[in-house]
# Entry
Amino acid sequence: MFFLLDTNLFRLACKSSNGAFIIQLNSELGRYPYLKNDDITAFKMTPFGLLEYLGIVPPKAPIISIPSSVASSKSGTVIAGHVIKEAKKFYVARPELSVEHLSKKCEERKYVDPAAIDLFDICVEHPLRSESVERTIINALAFDYLYKYVFSENLLRNVLPFLFASFFLDDAQSSSVSKFRLSKRLWDKGKAFRKNAPDEQAGISFEELDKAMQIKNQQDYLDGDIVHFVAYGMSHEGQQCRVVAFTCDDNATVANRVIVHRNIGELIYAACEPDMKQRFEQVVSRQAGYVVTCDSTGRFTAISDLAH
# Structure
């Protein structure tokens, strides 16, 4: 079991006085044994969550052109690979994403509530001290750029199989934000996906699901980190682990986004080639996790088990 705190709750944990938030959170976890994990390393922070916490706004990359030699290949891997490579070049050159700049942010530690130091170290200090932090963040940003890229209809037909397959990639090369972004695009544009929305069997109306998928701002997309990991969990040392996401957002909204994301994932999986299905079967079969809504003190106000 892994834990993800959304950025707002993480800030509250780090800034509370005398460990009040941590004490309340631990007290709440003690009331729900099925959520309990005494290992502090169970807490994780995603690349986009780390940037948001540090107050780093990802720079906007320019429109990347696709040469005719790349487009004429009609290979989704070649076309997508070109976009990712060029996006990486842009992000690597940005000083605010350099190892030097990111490591300076470790100074935030001196302002953290002593009771939250261990949590801060696991989620912020250790990742920022890692040799791979810059590469991980740049990979995530480049991948997200690909998912936002507006392809012509002809090119999109070539690239879609690559995007569909990458939906299930379980590594640092891909971004969970991007995968939720793909769900949002398919939900908005694909009548077939909407028709197959699991409203009947889940007892949730289509209107409720559609309302949850109305993304108001970039923050909602950043919350897609939580949606994807609750939907498909995390892999750790060969083990498949469920994820508990702690958020201050409306519980039903986040849970309904997970339901839509899982459903679209199943449809994407059905459209994959047989060899891809075999490769990603383990990811698709994982159990969804939990969405736990907390108030500003760390008290639980709602829990949704998305595996049932």
About this structure: The CA atoms of residues 66 and 166 lie 20 Å apart.
